[in-house]
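ok so for the tutorial part 2 we go from a plain amino acid sequence to predicted C-alpha cells. step 1 is just haveing the sequence, like this:
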Amino acid sequence: MTLAVNVAKTGKKVIYIDTEGGISIDRIKQISGPYFSNVANNIMVLEPTDFLQQTENIRSIDVWLRKHHEEVDLIVLDSAVALYRVDDMKSYKLSKELRRQIQLLSNLARKYDIAFIITNQIYNSFDDEGNNEVKAVGGDILEYISKVIIKLERGDETNQRIATLKRHRSLPEGRQVIFSITSNGIV
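step 2 — the prediction. this is what the C-alpha cells look like for a chain of 187 residues:
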C-alpha cells in the first residue's frame, strides 16, 4: 500500500487488484496524510471475488491501458493466489490460468513501461523424511516469470520486517533491509 500511495502522490495512476478484500481506506489515509484526496483519485481498486473474475479484471486492464497507459505507473496484484487457493477448478487448469494472468501482466508491463508487483502466499511442505521446506502457492509459475523476488519475514520486534532479495538481474542475492511498519507507512 505504501508503494501505491507513493506512486499516486506523483499524480500517476495505480491499478490495485485486491483479491483478499484487505485494502483499507483508513490505512491509505494514514499513509498519504494530507495528500489523501489526490492519492484516492489516483488509485483504482478492482476486487474480484473468484479466480475467473480475476482473469477478467486483468483482461479489462489490458483494454483500458490501450487508451490510458500514459497515466499509469504501477499495477499491484495482491495476492495472485488468494482466489486460486479457494477455486474448485482442476489443479492443472488453475495453473494454466494463473500462468496466463501473470504472462498478460508481464506483457503489459513491458509494452507500456509500467511496473507491476505481485504478492504471493507461501506454505510449509514436508517431504517423506519430515524435512520442512517453504514453498510458494501456485508452484513455480510466479517464480519462473518474476524478474525480482523479495522475501518478507517478521523481525524480532512487533512491527519489524526483514526484506531479503532472492532474485535480481544485477544485485546480489541475499541483500537485506530491516524496516518497520508504522502508522505513517514504512520506516
